[in-house]
Structures
1.
Amino acid sequence: AAEEGFDAEEVEGALEEAGHGPLPVLAVVGRPNVGKSTLVNRIIGRREAVVEDKPGVTRDRVTYEAEWAGRRFKVVDTGGWEQDVLGIDASVAAQAEYAIEAADAVVFVVDAKVGATDTDEAVVRLLRKAGKPVVLCANKVDGQSGEADASYLWSLGLGEPHPVSALHGRGTGDMLDRVLEALPEAPAQTFGTAVGGPRRIALIGRPNVGKSSLLNKVAGEERVVVNELAGTTRDPVDELIELGGVTWKFVDTAGIRKRVHLQQGADYYASLRTAAAVEKAEVAVILIDASESISVQDQRIVTMAVEAGRAIVVAYNKWDTLDEERRYYLEREIETELGQVAWAPRVNVSAQTGRHMEKLVPAIETALAGWETRVPTGRLNAFLGELVAAHPHPVRGGKQPRILFGTQAGTKPPRFVLFASGFIEAGYRRFIERRLREEFSFEGTPIHISVRVRE
Ligand code: GDP
Ligand code: GDP
């Protein structure tokens, strides 16, 4: 398609780049202080992330995007949680198991200077059960003399220990080469074996919004088909629940039912669990407590689901408690605080009374339909042609950039590449997104639009 100044190769390249499906997920696990956060910083090539953490400070990100040797993937960092009331083994195991469950491959970090401890052995057992590919990182090997320490870690039975200095970067390149070998091209969780099975729902929201009540309500009134045993580790459990005549898989429901209430690190633990559930799901049902002000934590959860590119439904719970005044303020808050998901189907429910439970499934179906929509190239270009003719881009410096043509590079969520004759301003991009949404009903799905400019 050598169209209007773009050669075929350029177009192909742009489509390939924009069309990538969801990225595979790498989890970095290990005891506190072995250097996980330092290593994650190395891998993502930024200092932004982690190490400045003070104990007890909530970290709002647990997933980062990384690229090595031209391949992109996500990294889940489990370094943000201090040992707490559970005691060290249980804390490490609990955070590791969520991360492992959501991951396609794992980097297990051990402090080579200390050697393998009992806690390390406990993590090894988890890793064995999970059966995911593992790359063993022997960290804190800052020089040649530390290499011998690394070789002791063969005893863990996880294969070759890779001597690394996360702090100085020594050996990290070789280790990342191994990681790429271990990591599948696409995440198995979302697009592998599960294709064709029941659709996967993550029920997410901050503590006390009513997740467990809602789950009990839907599972109680309808039939719980099976309680799947945890496939790998003891905690994350997926439940099959029949709703509206269709079987759905609610992922990681054990975490919801168990109601883990920890003192320290509870927020971090909750974020990790949310990130893991979102990774495993196709659609996120985000529960908001309508009786309380929409909080920063609510917004973070929304952002997590949007950034992960999942279909989204927003459910406002505890509707039974709302008076007229609260309803008025809620609508204002939704407008100002949740504009980023203004396109998501909305249901106002009460897990307590069962109000509007029947609206949940149609909303989920709408969101999934939007998420999977593919617009034929002909139709897209007819639409773009009319749009651009009726609403041209503003003239800048005597030139008028034009959208020349466009194509959809992928779905789940829909991704578009537009080819343009000059720089397209952010305002005009938003305008196009808005019109695309109106025209093709992308309700309940993030959409990605990238613009290529002819050189
Ligand atoms: P985490 O708790 O596993 O995330 O560990 P951190 O990344 O916070 O690191 C714990 C401590 O070990 C910090 O003081 C780091 O600077 C230090 N550290 C991390 N990696 C290395 C390394 O490769 N060599 C040395 N000497 N110290 C390291
Ligand atoms: P989770 O932490 O998100 O799982 O929240 P829970 O399901 O444990 O609910 C937290 C509290 O809110 C409990 O006391 C529930 O009884 C209450 N709750 C949940 N849903 C509703 C609702 O729709 N209406 C009212 N009035 N209370 C609710």
2.
Amino acid sequence: KSVVNKIAAGEIIIAPANAIKELLENSIDAGSTTIDITIKDGGLKQITITDNGSGINKDDLPILCERFTTSKLSKFEDLQSIATYGFRGEALASISQISHLTVITKTKNEPTAWKAQFTDGMLNKNGAKPVAGKNGTSLIIEDLFYNVKSRLRALRGGNEEYLKIVDVVNRYSVHSKNVGFTIKKTGSNSNDLIIRPNLNTKDRIKVIYGSSVANDLIDLSLQANLDVGLFKCEGMITNSNYYNNKKRIQPIFFINNRLVACDPLKRAINQVYSSYLPKGHTPFIYLALELDPVNVDVNVHPTKREVRFLHEDEVIDYIVRELEAKLSSLDSS
Ligand code: ADP
Ligand code: MG
């Protein structure tokens, strides 16, 4: 069973950046307004993430790293939303199978924080210990993939893994209003990213991608009743008049607050811009879609990276039409 768990874990968490994505989602779901990350050796030696969210009840610590426990599920009444928001109760279970995991957490109702260490999904025998700490949760993940040598061999060096981590944090920073982020390497006394909680979306993009990108953005907010149901979308996209994205920043897509890849949407948008932008220039795109959860399937792939939704063509056509209208109205003004 243990070997099977490790193989399964190695398919969900295929690189340190996947672990970071899951941890960010948990911290954001817990209502955090600050999230601080420290990374050692591209996350392979150590990942530390500290948030100021709700904390985890002491009584929940023993089941924190179990897969699909009924007690985990009972917190959620609606099975559909479980699928939508990526709830599978698998992230910490997977991480604890392939690393040394320590959790320090405090809810506002507890007088102290509690420190819990996990091996193979189980809370260590001596249980959780009271320690000093602030409200919120810190996770310390050490020696990721220490027991999955094939995974370690498949990874790039620490620097490249670090860049992949920063990329995921950047994307969540653009999207997560009212949440502040910092990230740095262990031992460094300066942060590689500082996003203050109260920054607006445009200023977040400016801090991360520079003012030449930020100054060239226009708003794309949409709302419509489609066959797929009520559809909403918010975002910032390149103003075709000026933009010159030589760095080829990949599109930032969120669906129902989850960072996803959606290649059909990416291709359709790039197609629209191809008639506006000179060859070799790519648009900056940040789009956050909201769809009725029943229509979204995030579990087409274990890492939840690629997403599928019903009436995909209808939604994409609608976005493309609105985008074209917006760009041509700017063009003629
Ligand atoms: P899932 O997010 O799918 O429920 P996870 O393994 O990612 O599964 O997390 C399990 C549970 O642990 C979460 O549902 C949440 O209740 C709790 N949890 C994890 N991280 C945090 C955090 N940073 N703050 C508060 N609760 C957390
Ligand atoms: Mg989670």
